[in-house]
Amino acid sequence: MPHIVVLGIFVADTTFRATRMPRMGETILGDGFALGPGGKGSNQAVAAGRAGADVRFISRIGRDTFGDMAMQVWRDAGVGTDAVIRGEDATGAAFIYVDSASGDNAIIVAPGAAGKLTPADIEAEADLIAGAAVFVTQLEQPMDVALSGLRIARAGGAITLLNPAPAATLPEGMLELCDYVTPNETEAEALSGVAVTDIDSARAAGDALLEKGVGRAALLTLGAQGSLFHSAEQSIHIPAMSAGPVVETTGAGDAFNGGFAAALAEGADPVTAARFACAVASLSVTRPGAAASMPTRAEVEALLAR
Predict the structure, then answer these.
(1) What pLDDT sits at residue 306?
(2) What is the pLDDT of residue 289?
(3) Which residues bind ATP (predicted)?
C-alpha cells in the first residue's frame, strides 16, 4: 500500500473539564481530568493508521515519560516511527479546557522538543517524503519546517495536504505547494479574509483560497455543519453524520485530516475521501480524548454503510 507521511508534533494532553474557565487569579473546581496523547500531527497519524493506512511520522520527542507515551500510542496504531528523533529536550504538553455542558474546547500548546525541528531534519527524510502517496503537515512545528516538507513532497510528486492550524500568517507561495488545504472556520477567515458563518460564506472563502494558489481543493471543516469540499469544478456540502451524542470535540479536525489522507492514499476520489473523513470525525466526537477517540476502520465502514 502506498504510504502516508505526516509531519507534526506530539504533546501530552492535560484535559480539564469544568463549567467555565476561571478568571485570572481565581481557582475553581473542575468536573474531571485526563492525561493522554495529543498534538495535531500525531493525532492525524493515529487517525490514518487506525483507518487502515500505512503511516510514517516525522517529529521530535524527549527521552521522558511523555515520549514513552508517544511511542506506545504510535505502536498501537501501527504508525511507523523511524523518522522520529528522540533527544534530551522535554516532550511537549497541552492544556485543554473542555466545557462540561457543550464539549467544546480551548487549548494552549507548548510544543517542547518538536518546536526544535529544523529544515535539516526534514531534508534528512527527503526520500521518505518524496516517495509518499500523501504528505500531511500542520503549523504547530516551526513554519520553515512545514514549508520544507511541502517543497520536498511537491518535488517528489506526493499529494500535499496542509491543515493550517493553529491559524497563522503563511509565507508567500506556501499555499501554491498545497493540493488540499483543510481550515476550520477561524483558520479559513485568517487565510482568506472572509468570515465563515454559513455554507455560502464558506464557498466564498474557498474561492479566495483557490485564488491564492491552492491546487486542487479547499476542504473547510464546519463543526456541527460538517464540511465543504470546494474546488474550481464543484462545491459540495458534506453534512456531519450522526454517530451518537457529542462527548468532546477535541481532535475532530485531526480525525478528519487523518481520514481524508488515508482515503486519498488508497486511491479514493477526493469527494469520496472527504465523506470518509467526515465519518471518522463524526465518530471521534462521540468519545473523550484526542488520539484516544480515533475510530477503527471497521467502525468507519459501519457508519458509512448506514
Answers:
(1) 85
(2) 82
(3) 184, 221-226, 253-254
123 within domain boundaries: yes
Q: What is the DSSP string of 212-270?
A: TT-SSEEEEE-GGG-EEEEESS-EEEEPPP--S-----TTHHHHHHHHHHHHHHTT--H
CATH assignment at residue 295: 3.40.1190.20
- Looking at the structure of the chain, the number of domains it has is 1
pTM to 2 decimal places:
0.92
With residue 135 as reference, give the H or E element that holds it: strand 134-137
CA-CA distance, 280 to 253, in Å (whole number)? 10
Q: Which domain holds residue 192?
A: 40-60+115-304
Residue 92 lies in a domain: no
Mean per-residue pLDDT of the chain: 95
SS3 87: strand
**Which are the contacts of 302, defined by CB distance < 8 A and separation ≥ 6?**
none
Point out the residues that are catalytic: 254
- Residue numbering of the annotated binding site for K(+): 250, 284, 287, 289, 293
CA distances from 71 to 22, 232, 243, 257 (A): 34, 41, 30, 21
Q: Binding site residues, as ranges?
A: 11-13, 39-43, 140, 184, 221-226, 250, 253-254, 284, 287, 289, 293
**Binding site for ATP: what residues are annotated?**
184, 221-226, 253-254
Q: How is 146-204 classified by DSSP, letter by letter?
A: HHHHHHHHHHHT-EEEE---S--PPPTTSGGG-SEE--BHHHHHHHHS----SHHHHHH
